[in-house]
Amino acid sequence: MNKLTEDNLEVRAEAIRALGLIREGKAMPAILATLQSPAQSPAVYAQALIALKRLAIPGFATIQHDFVFGTRHFEAIAAENRLDAVRFVLADKDDGIVLNQDDLTDLVINWAKRHCRIF
Fold it and tell me: What is the DSSP letter of 92?
C-alpha cells in the first residue's frame, strides 16, 4: 500500500488498480482519501472509483455522485479533472465496465445541465 503515495502518478494509479483487483479491503480508507485529494491525475481518480466499487465500499453511489458533481469531499477537485476521470473510466474497456456506464453517463449529463448553458 506504500505505492499509494508514490510521486509517479502512473505508478499510483496502477497500485490502486491492483488493490482493487485483489479486493484488499484494508486499502479502502487510503483509496478513498486519494479520491478526495485535489492533487491526483484523472487516471488515479478513475482507478480509485473503480477500486472502491470493486471493494464494495458502503455508499458508493453517493461517492460517485458527489465526485462527478464536485460536492462534499470533492469540492477542491477541478471539474476538468473530475470529468477527465469519468472520460477515462468510460474509455477503459477492461476496468471501466466495473462501473455502470449508463449511470455514470447520466450523472455527467445532469452535471452538465446544471453547469453548462448548452442544454
Answer: -
